[in-house]
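Hey, quick one: can you model this chain's 3D structure?
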Amino acid sequence: MKNAGFRFGIVLAVLALTVWLLVPSIQFYSKSEAEQENIRRDTPHKLKRILNLGLDLQGGMRLVLEIDRSKLDSDDKDVIDRAYAIIENRINQLGVAEPILQKQGRDRIIVELPGIKDEKVAKEVIGKTAQLEFNLVRDDATRERALSIIETTVSGGKVEDSDSEGAKDKAAEDKEKAEAELADKLFSGSEAAEAEKKDKEGGDGGSDPFASAGTFRTMVQYYGDMSIVKTEDVRRVSEFLRRDDVRRALDRAGLGGNSFLWGNEPVTPERGSAATYKYLYYVKSAPEMKGDVIKNAMANIDQGGMNAGKAKVDMELNAAGARRFATVTAHNVQKCLAIVLDSTVYSAPRIQAKISGGRAEITGSFTMEEAKALSIILRAGALPAPVNIIEERTVGPSLGQDAIEKGILSMIIGTALIILFMIVYYQISGLIVLFALFLNMLIVLATMAAFGATLTLPGIAGLILLISMGTDANVLIFERIREELAQGRTVRSAIEQGYQNALSAIIDANLTSIVVGFILMWKGTGPIRGFAVILVIGITASLFTALFVSKLLMTSAFHKRAKISI
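Sure thing. Here's the predicted structure for all 566 residues.
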């Protein structure tokens, strides 16, 4: 037989390749659930090489999102396409294996997330509008003036006009007075300070150096060149800042173009203290730049400086953003630039010099998980309009496990019946077919793993269908061989003619099925698309194993024999 060694080499190479492609999947699913979760979190790139399980097999969540068009300035015709692209990007960054997204009508997007563990984080990342802005932090004197105006207003006093020199002098005096009072509380050790601490803490004086007396001005305290507010006072301070009379007073004083914003996470300024605080930033309302200038963002660990070992986000800006960033930093050296995400300040680094080249970083008191979530949102950008979750359904893993067990059981029963039939009816030739079918299944699963495809419950049904289709092709061939043997042909000639005569029927049946499979992949979604993927890959593999592998094995086994076991 010509080129037999080369052909066997091809079969062995295909077999070795399929095993190699399936090894990551075998290793992944042989680990415990906790170990699998660690891989998803720490090395999500490994998920690209495993055979994923669909929502119906491993559980997960299904969301129906609706775009809130009332928040749009005009009827944006492509809003659903833009929202779809952004949500798809966010989900991909979440590391969800083979998510399913589907547009429904002009306002809804259906999202299926198989295997998702942290449902809260997923919903926040998917639905977050994420308006990212870069706002200049106002100087200490301007901030102190605003705080003094608020204190005067809530106390019923009169606010000076914006051009009043007395207002500016009073702000400076108030700042000095507040700093002096805080210094007395921190360092004087006087009986009055100790009594105030005891009264506030209800104890023996404790070690909290930031105890407040309860008024607005004492609730907003200094820590270095920053303002901080005790966590339990944040709500009260926010209520003061939202008051209409406070806003009007700030407008009359010429400070209406600024905003008070809270920091992202509570901090503990004093080591060993149980008290937590939040930073209160006073920033210019009009942003210097917006988040659409961000080209890329990645979470990393800071390797040096004061934040060494802490999480950070490295940003890369586009050309326009790089030019604007260079201009902003050049004109505001020694000022702080706040990175504001949805009206929350994540960091406010001081500009030390002009920053050019289009690269920057966000640092702050967040964990690596928070840095990753922030980088996801920064990379995806802002949604064109808010989206509301109008339907949420969670599929538990027990349902998926039950589906897997029943699907595997059906495959075992179906395969066992086919094996029994092929061995009894076709004898040794039947064993050759079974090897070809086994290789067919390996090729299908390995190909899916290579492309990170998802195995769903309909996909398992597709695998069962492929077993029967592969058997059908070989039955056609064997019956043709029997006809040739009945006409007196030699074994070798009967095998050649049998495969040749059955070729047209096999190609015809499988080609039409492949066309249908591509149409289902094109138009179908969810389980239908999963079924179509299995069908197309399986039919292609079936043609290879039936027309090449089984023919090679049949010819090698019987070409020198006078009789054939068929």
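One thing worth noting: Confidence is low (pLDDT under 50) at residues 163-169, 182-213.
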